[in-house]
Specification:
This protein is mostly helical and 342 residues long. It has 18 helices and no strands. The radius of gyration is 25 Å and the shape is globular.
């Protein structure tokens, strides 16, 4: 009888322990599947933590994104994706943030393809305290691409494809690089469609209608730069019929999503009155937004408007500031114009 009682107690205890473990696992899964403020403020564009969750094209205000992702990590320390999103927000605040490497290292075991792609980008651009190294970047991109067709391998594969095409960090392989971009584009990775279009345009290896079609693929897959570039083709009749209304709609779509190239192009539409009544105040607002987002054309255009009082009061001091920004972004004419105003 005693043996039976003890056996029953042990069975009950085991059952309770198993139930507690199941409940804990269910709670963890529920937490992992719940969209957080970190996802909403820093979610990777086209690579959300969980399919259907929020994604952010460009983080414009990193402080709340950092706070949200730190909170998400504190609540759910086992979800490595939050570390990647926090690293992303930190890089917007400070491209040389010393915390980024440790965060990515901590997420590497759970998310090897995604983290390898992130390290590739850091080495390619010399960020997070790492010295720029195309060879290291290419090696990390290759490591990421080893996990293809896993969706989180896409950014790394696209980086490797471009380096092959341009012969950076290792031997050139245009054929292999373009084949990789082709596969990535067909799989729905919009950035690969845009990159393929730009590279084939640069090399003259595709017709204008073919390039336009690649940009259609990019835009339809969520590539906002592709939308803006396609809009410019409708504006200038490159591979598609002239359609200013459609161009403006594409610029608006890109700009509203956070692509500054679209905001700059839309600003020019309203400055020059392409298919609409000229609206300088609206153009200025769009140029300001795009210039703050480091679009050199927008800074140059804004500087011209302010320096010459084109529809707004003359503001030479502010014009110098935005022209200096355009100069820093690589526009040599802006450098000369800023010097002439001093």
């Amino acid at each position: 009888m005693i043996r039976l009682v003890i056996g029953a107690l042990l069975a009950a205890w085991s059952s309770a322990a198993a139930l507690a473990q199941d409940v804990a696992q269910t709670v963890a899964q529920d937490v992992n599947q719940t969209e957080t403020e970190c996802d909403r403020l820093a979610g990777l564009w086209l690579l959300p933590r969980v399919e259907g969750m929020a994604q952010v094209y460009a983080i414009t205000d990193p402080a709340p994104a950092i706070a949200a992702c730190e909170a998400a990590m504190a609540t759910d320390p086992d979800t490595a994706f939050f570390a990647v999103l926090l690293a992303r927000a930190l890089l917007v605040q400070d491209p040389q943030s010393a915390r980024v490497i440790a965060l990515l290292d901590g997420a590497a075991e759970a998310l090897p393809a995604l983290v390898s792609g992130q390290f590739g980008a850091l080495y390619e651009n010399g960020m997070a305290g790492l010295a720029a190294s195309e060879r290291s970047a290419r090696n990390f991109y290759r490591a990421a691409c080893d996990d293809w067709p896993e969706r989180l391998a896409r950014p790394g594969c696209a980086g490797l494809a471009l380096m092959k095409i341009e012969g950076r960090g290792g031997p050139a392989d245009e054929t292999g690089g373009f084949a990789m971009l082709d596969n990535l584009c067909r799989s729905g990775w919009a950035m690969a469609c845009t990159t393929r279009a730009l590279q084939q345009e640069l090399r003259g290896t595709a017709t204008e209608p073919q390039i336009a079609q690649m940009l259609v693929q990019a835009c339809e897959a969520g590539g906002l730069l592709g939308c803006s570039l396609l809009g410019f083709r409708y504006e200038t009749e490159l591979g598609v019929p002239y359609d200013m209304s459609r161009a403006r709609a594409l610029y608006e779509r890109a700009c509203e999503g956070g692509e500054m190239h679209g905001c700059a192009n839309l600003g020019e539409v309203y400055r020059s009155g392409y298919g609409v009544a000229p609206d300088v105040p609206r153009a200025v607002a769009l140029f300001e937004r795009a210039c703050d987002g480091n679009d050199p054309f927008a800074c140059m255009a804004l500087g011209d408007i302010l320096a010459n009082g084109r529809g707004v009061p003359v503001d030479v001091a502010r014009a110098i500031v935005v022209l200096d920004r355009a100069c820093w972004l690589g526009d040599p004419i802006a450098c000369d114009d800023a010097d002439m105003l001093r």
